Every structure is written in structure tokens, then in C-alpha cells.
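User: For my dataset I need records formatted as: sequence, then C-alpha cells, nothing else. Please produce one.
Assistant:
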Amino acid sequence: MKNKSKRVLVLLVAVIMLLGLVACQQGGTQPSKEETQKPTPTPTAKSAATEPAKTDPPDPMAEWKLYDKPTTWVAMRTTFANAPSSGDQLAHKEMEKITNVYLDIQEAGRGAEYNKALNLAFATDSQPEIIAVSASAAQKYAADTGKIIDLTELLKEHGKNYLARVKQHNLEKRATASDGKYWNISKIRIEHDNRVGMINKPLLDELNLKVPTTVEEMTEVLRKVKAHNPEAIPWIAGAYSGSGGVYAFAEYCFNISKGPQEFNNAIRYSYYEDQDATKDMVKWLRTLYKEGLLDASYLSRSNDDANAAIRQGQVAFVFGWFSGGTDKVDADGKTIPDSTEWVTVPGMMAPDGKRHLSPNNPVHIGIAVTSKAADPEKVVKYFDYYFTDAGTELFNYGVKGVTFNEVDGKKVYTDLIAKATSPMNAARAQGVLVEEWPMYQPEAMPGLYGNKLGESIKESIKYWDPLPPVLSASPDKMQEMSAIRADLDKTWQAYFADMITGDKEVDDLWPEYVSRVKEAKVERYIELIREMYQNWLNKK
């Protein structure tokens, strides 16, 4: 019995060992129900548990989103009758998409009317978050009201693109107020001056004449044009290039200026302090007028009349402010000088043997931030975008496919702008190239003026004199200077017109002119501009 029980026990142990061996060969214990539902990992791939979670790439525009919810800021600016601004314009709507900020732009007149509106707003503590002003005006309002924010430190953190543009063009001294602080974010406009002289090259070729470079050569060209065609108007002046254009070009020829002019490290008012050169300029214009070489109607001719004469090939020379309006666009959308193959005349050689063209101050009116702004750092950040590469494209050209396209690697305005009655105003209607508003405009815009005029602007820029000083003083003295200047301008305009077109000779009228400008306080004006010039020299 014992032996039988022992054999059963041994057999049982053997069966148990056999079952254990089979289980091991089959991979161990059976998985649970939950484990059988898990996907079997691929032997050659990493386990999913060890792979990092996939994330979307960072949004490069995320830093410019200023609020999670739509937010509105109110901005007050000057009125442009032919180019009103609105937060609903294309470029501003793009900014709204980027920043989640809608700009409620309110226009409040121009000049004295705008200043009155600002003064009232500050007096009633109803000023908006943003106002359009120059650096000096912002400084004045800060001193008078305490309601303008000093942006100097905010720009270091939130306005780095703006400061980079300022530094790029060495404009620190011009972009700050007299105290060296940044009270606004200005418009920076480089190479922008649409005042150009243009001459009809086919007509010169027909007469075997060269493009003139001196006053004497210019006079000879005009005389030969008149001799060739007695009905011609050798130098025409329409509304866009009338007396202002005539005097501006003549000033270039004689290196004088109707405004304060820096000369040999000093400031001068040429129309009084450099009487010999001023008298020579007026005498030259009188000679041209009396010989029928300068437009007999240069003070009053309409654009339509001027353009008709240009199209008929009766004109040799024109100088003026070209902006692509109806006065210069033909049926093909080209400017008149484009269609008649005109070439640039960048001023005549002055008596010193050099060409002198006056550049524009590249720093213009921008915006200041008032104490009403809940987040002034975000306002600074908002306008800093304008000075990025993307912002520069947006506010110079608009939106690709709508206001511009790229052709052969160059940005070209679409017909919406290029073939508009006034391309410049058409651009502004889209929130592009807005005046008296922050932006960075690095170069002249050929698409707005026509290719030939665009090239002419760049050609003229080569002869620019150094940038003029920025004259500033206390508000009272600035106002006094402006009032005297307005009276002086009225005086010379009346006397010069009489000297050029009247019966009396220049020498006969000159003593009367000098006496009249003295009555207009010209010597006080000179005293003021010299004081302001010294302020400029002392500014670091």
C-alpha cells in the first residue's frame, strides 16, 4: 500500500513539472483581458510610450497678439480731406487680426482747429489713448497737462524695432524732443521728395541740345525751344508746379532758401541776409518771363491747360510736386513724363559750382500715448510692429493680392492703386502710406509716381544737401516765429510776383521790399531762428 501511494505521488509530481515546462515554453503566464486588448509593439520601432507628444510649431505672430479678447483704442489725428483715415481700412484691419486691437480713429480738423480740439480734450480730461503729434508738441502737452506718457523707457523694452530704425539712419537727435526724451513714435520717411525737375528729351534731341547743368545753359535751351516754336511754353507751371515750384527750382540754382538755411555752420534767412543772390534769382526769372520762356500764367495756369500743352509737345521743362493725381495720368495709367520720355534735371549748378537740393526732414509727426491708456506698454508694442519688416510691407504696400503683387521679385501695386485717379490717395484709402502717422518708409515709391518720376526722385536725391537742423524752442517762441514767418512769406510772394511780371525793374522795387520785410520783423525772426539753431547744436 505504501509502495502504491509512493508511485502515485511521484507520478503526480511529474505531471505538475511537465505542465510547468509547457507553460514556460508558451511564454509564461496568460495575459489578462485588458492586456490582450493592447496593441503589440512593432519589434523594430520604439515603443509609443517613449515617443514625445507631438506639438504644433510656435506661432511667430503670437507675440503681437496683445489681448485675448477684442479691444478698442481711440486715436485722434488731423483731417486729410482727400485721404481720410479709419480703423476699417485694409491695413488697420490687418493689424486688428494680428493684435486683437481695433483702432477707432477720429479726425479732428487741421492746424489751429486740431490744436483747439486737443486742448479741449485735455482740459476736460476726455483725451483719447492716442494722439497724433510731433515730438515737440507731445513734450509741450506733457509739461502743460501732465497727461502725456514719457516713452523713453517703454521703447527700450517694447519698441525695439522702432529704436532700431531710428539708429539705422542716425536719427536719435531728430526723433527726440529738446530734452532728449522720446515723447512720441514718429513716422520715418527716407528718400521721400516728389519735387523734381524734368525736361523733354526727344525735344532736346530734335534740336541737338544737351540736358542743361547751369543757369546759362538752361536759359540757352529755353531760348532755342522758343525760337524753334514761337507757340511753345519752354518752362510751364500748372497748379501742381506753379509759383511754388518756380521759386523752389530757382532757389536750387542760386543756393538760397525762403526758409531757415544752414550755411557754413550757421543759420540764415537768405531772402534778407543774402540779398545779392536773392536779387539775382528774381532778375533771372524776370528775364525768362519777359522773353516768353517762363510760363506767362505761372501764377494761375490750371493743370488741364498745362497737361494739354505737355501732351502736344509744346513744353521743354517743368518742375513741381508730383503725386500721381489726375493732372498726370493718361488713359494708359502712365504719368505724363513717362509717356513723353522726359528725363531728370536735378537742379542747376549754383554759383559755387555745386548742385544744392534741400532734403526733407526724415522724421515726421507720429503718435503720443496719453494717461488714458490702460496699457501704455501695449500701445508701444502695437506701433512697434509698424517698424518690423512685415509692418513696413503692410504700411507701404498693403496686402498681397489686394493692393500689391510680386513681379520678378519686386513689389508692384495692383490696378486698385496704380490705375486709380490719384494713386497716392487710393493707397491712403487702404490705410497705406498714411500721412502724420507712424510707419517706416525706406524709399521713394515709383509705383505711385510712375516709373520715370520714381527714377527722377532717386536721381535728385543724389544731390541733396545735408539734412536741415530741427529748430525748436519754447511754445511761445515757436508761435512767435511762425507768425512772423507767415507775414514774411506773404511779403516776398507779393513783391516777387510784381518784380517778375510787373513794369518796374527789380532794382527799383528792391528797397521797398527790404523796407517791408523789416516792418514784418525779419530781424526778430533771424534772432529767433539763431537761438533755435543754437539749441539744436547744444542738443546731444
